[in-house]
Amino acid sequence: MALELSTARRAGSFALFVGICATATLHFVAPSLPDIYDGLPPPEGPYHYESPPPALASSNQPALSGMLTLPVQNGQVRAAGVQTDDGQAAIFFDAGTLKVPPTAQNITIRIEPLQSTPPPPSPLMIIGNVYRISASTEPEGRSVTLGKPLQVILRTPPGAYRTLQSYDGSHWHVLRVGRVTGHYVTASLPILGDVAATTAPARTGSHSRLSALDLIHRIQGLAYLTVVVALVLVGAVVLIWHKSLRRGS
Amino acid sequence: MALTALVFSASIARALLAPFGTTFSTAAFLACLSIGWLAARRSVARQAAWSILPSVLTGVLVGGLLVAPMYATGPPMRHVQGILPWGAGTALVAAIEEAVVRGQVQSLWTGIAGVTRGLLVSAGVFAAMHVPAYGLSAMPVDLAAGLTLAGLRALTGRVAPCAIAHVGADLGGWLWS
Prior knowledge:
The structure holds 2 protein chains of 2 kinds.
Chain A lengths: L1 H28 L36 E8 L2 E2 L2 E4 L5 E5 L4 E2 L6 E9 L10 E14 L6 E2 L3 E6 L7 E5 L4 E3 L1 E6 L2 E6 L3 E7 L12 H37 L1
Chain B lengths: L1 H15 L5 H19 L11 H21 L10 H31 L1 H20 L4 H18 L3 H17 L1
């Protein structure tokens, strides 16, 4: 018993030491990783619209922009994150994501809410703000491109959204959406440009053709149902297992 | 094994239910974990533990060490305004997670496979259970934090210091972010 106890404490002390060192190392080596371990999304104030709906115009606070200037060292820009001052849009990238000209000394990354932008393909429509994500060298002002995708986090206003899309100056592209936490949606952004959340108006006719997006939503609905059934089954297994253990003892 | 499966299922359900709102998805997650905790609570053997005061102090210290690297690179960015309702919800989630993952999953796996494997399984479960909601990018830091909290559980023999450290790290992280 004493031997087991001392083994537990030795292993515990070692794991504690390794865990704390690893946490600190990860923070400094990969600052783009999330630092919050768990919990709930932070409390949210009202959505800040760049062009508010008429009903919200009187109480709306304007959407804010964000900017960050970073040094270029050995032709590379370090991993970093930029967010708007109201926290509604943010980007994160690893070292080497931004392709910079060899002569560049600094780069400036901007996230700006736009007043207007070309509409996405029908029947989709934009909900919330469109944000322009751009990067340029300082002081030359030359555009910077991406060597690999960066992560964008966008806050969506209340109401259902379908997906995030980016506009490259000529076409809208559907982005690969990652995690969703409350009204914050993460997506992978392969090129710099405009980003927005889009939705589709509700269908009124019963004979409308099923779009690909509707199909995806129906599949998601089935997935929810499957998970709920799976949870009930797992719960039942746990209870049966528990009862069999009690009988055994 | 069934309890571990339930924890994973609850995490996946939480992520899938996210579009219905954080309150709903988190409540479903907590309900599933609570079912697991209730079902398994009599199966977990008690173990020798530190007394309360040093356990609590160690929990506070470890929570501080988990957030210390953030504060080393800059001051808190957020005001404490609005932290109470958010903090209460977060504390509840963290405490129930610790009760199930450290209090039961780790103890049961320690009984089956030994201290070291129990500790590693607990850290792995903690990291994996957050992937559906927070993405793969959160896994390395959750694995490191999971190892820390699992070590704290093995060292003190108690769940309370793990919950204190977890809640402290969440709140400290929120203020800094």
